[in-house]
Amino acid sequence: MATTSSPFLAYDDKGSAASERTPPLVLIHGHPFDRTMWAPQISAFSATRRVIAPDLRGYGESPVVPGVTPLPAFAEDIAGLLDALGVGEFVLAGLSMGGQIVMECYRQFPERVRGLVLADTFPAAETAEGKRTRGAMADRLLREGMRGYADEVLYKMVAPYADADVAAHVHRMMTATSPEGAAAALRGRAERPDYRELLTRVTVPALVVVGADDEYTPVSDAEAMHAALPDSTLRVIDSAAHLPNLERPEEFNETLAAFLARVDDRG
């Protein structure tokens, strides 16, 4: 299927299931990116299954809603999109903020989720200092725009040794993001709940992935999630920072393919 738009979210919807046992793969991007961050995964996995990748509200081609966008609002948007597409059960993957949205989705509608992929993310609620930092950053983005921030954080999002084309793609995504959308998400994310207890009650297989050189969500965060989840696999991807799906797509896709095969086998 071609790139298209729902009544609210823009999204890619590509590929079709190899069998009835093959659930769609839903990919949730991080901040401040858009659905093109999943290009290597959409290309690889749409050959054998349906792959759906939305732009979250305030990002990419989706509408900007100024103010505050809490994680439950993102999750409700995703549920509404999947309802409109006739998708019942699915595997849900998210990176960074997208991973936290995945956790919120599982909190809201666990019966629809066949498997969880949590990449370069963490489940804890925001600290008081973190809330102040996110609020200040929201104010800065509204005042200055995205470029200065993008220049500052590029080589934490990807490793300093990352492929130049990958770094350029990441920088383009950040500078193309609406400051109003990014600020609304920052304010909402600052008020997120603590998902650590939720992880102990997850009843589906989970994959935890992290770049070995991720400074935002270090390997220790991934190890803690792996320990909390009843049925999980942990993969640390060498020579990658916060975006291993773009920095090391072959390794990321190999890991994701093995996980999806396991989910498919469970039926």
From TrEMBL:
Transmembrane segments: none annotated. Residues 25-254 form the AB hydrolase-1 domain. Keywords: Hydrolase. GO terms for cellular component: membrane. Coiled coil: none annotated. It holds the Pfam family Abhydrolase_6. GO terms for molecular function: hydrolase activity. The keyword Hydrolase applies. This is Alpha/beta fold hydrolase.
